[in-house]
């Protein structure tokens, strides 16, 4: 089972439709859940996808448009009803923390969990979350209101020990951690055993970037350079390129150019306008520029 899995709960734009729900994703990282945006219907989608409320510890909000955050009060209230314990951190701007704090104090004063807000500055890059194995960086996007994207990046993983060599050299357990981190082993007789005789290469670290609502911005490619999977909004196809610019959104082909210039491994399109009956046009236009493009859909699970 993948240690890093992306779950798509909603990939529509401003209003729900019969085909799509508003923006919401959940990353399952080593059994801990992190939500990105929280549009209406988020908690129902969690149930449909078998994502446990009790494992949700972080919610990252990209901006304060309703289709990205109006599901949050209902979700938090449900978590309290389910007697979720521990700490839940909502990463948002100062205005968001004040607004949602007041809503929760009015509707859900008796909470079973510690609700905390991590205040982000939408004008600069910053580390939103730093764990022993993962960092989450927030970075500015260009939209009609302050908006950020998020870059989830695993830290370098430890080397794999060769059990046969560990046994052959009778290496003490106390030294195994250092060897996995790259140290050589020195025998009691003073003989140095090189690390590459004792280990095999580490698994590659995985990265994922979430580019929420934004006008086409070629500088984003440098921010997400080399990312394994890039999610980029593609509200419109090329037939509505002018509308995209006026509303500070992107087209599918513009998202593809960002992925191409960033050297991304894969591109996932989302945030689709309800004006389109399907996303075939989006996909075709993007793949002419960046072939490894796919379409987000509710219920989609992607192991990274």
Provide an overview of this structure.
By secondary structure, the protein is α/β, with parallel strands linked by helices. The chain is 25% helix and 29% strand. The chain is built from ten helices and 18 strands. It has helices spanning 42-48, 66-69, 72-81, 94-107, 163-168, 176-180, 220-223, 241-246, 252-262, 280-287; strands at residues 4-10, 24-29, 32-38, 56-60, 87-92, 114-119, 126-130, 134-141, 147-154, 160-161, 185-186, 192-193, 199-200, 207-211, 229-233, 266-270, 293-295, 301-303. The chain has a seven-stranded mixed sheet. Strands 7-8-9-14-15-16-17 form a seven-stranded mixed sheet, with helices on one face. Strand 3 (32-38), helix 1 (42-48) and strand 4 form a beta-alpha-beta unit. Helix 3 (72-81) crosses helix 4 and helix 9 (252-262) packs parallel to helix 10. The longest helix has 14 residues, at 94-107. The protein starts with a strand and ends with a strand. The model has no long low-confidence stretch (mean pLDDT 95).
């Amino acid at each position: 089972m993948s240690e890093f899995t992306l779950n798509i709960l909603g990939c529509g734009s401003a209003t729900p439709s019969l085909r799509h729900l508003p923006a919401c994703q959940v990353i399952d990282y080593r059994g801990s859940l992190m939500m990105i945006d929280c549009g209406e219907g988020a908690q129902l989608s969690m149930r449909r996808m078998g994502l446990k409320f009790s494992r949700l510890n972080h919610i990252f909000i990209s901006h304060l448009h309703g289709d990205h955050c109006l599901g949050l009060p209902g979700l938090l209230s449900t978590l309290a009803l389910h007697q979720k314990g521990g700490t839940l951190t909502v990463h948002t701007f100062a205005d968001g923390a004040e607004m949602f704090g007041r809503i929760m104090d009015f509707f859900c004063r008796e909470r079973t969990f510690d609700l905390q807000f991590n205040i982000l500055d939408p004008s600069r890059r910053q580390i939103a979350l730093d764990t022993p194995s993962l960092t989450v960086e927030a970075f500015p996007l260009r939209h009609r209101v302050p908006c950020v994207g998020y870059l989830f990046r695993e830290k370098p993983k430890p080397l794999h020990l060769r059990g046969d060599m560990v046994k052959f050299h009778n290496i003490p357990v106390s030294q195994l951690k250092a060897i996995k981190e790259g140290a050589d082993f020195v025998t009691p007789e003073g003989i140095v055993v090189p690390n590459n005789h004792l280990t095999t290469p580490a698994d590659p670290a995985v990265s994922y970037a979430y580019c929420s609502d934004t006008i086409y911005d070629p500088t984003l490619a440098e921010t997400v350079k080399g990312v394994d999977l890039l999610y980029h909004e593609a509200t419109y196809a090329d037939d509505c390129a002018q509308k995209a610019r006026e509303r500070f959104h992107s087209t599918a082909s513009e998202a593809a150019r960002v992925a191409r210039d960033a050297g991304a491994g894969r591109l996932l399109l989302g945030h689709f306008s309800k004006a389109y009956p399907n996303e075939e046009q989006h996909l075709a236009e993007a793949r002419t520029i960046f072939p490894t493009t796919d379409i987000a859909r509710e219920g989609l699970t992607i192991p990274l």
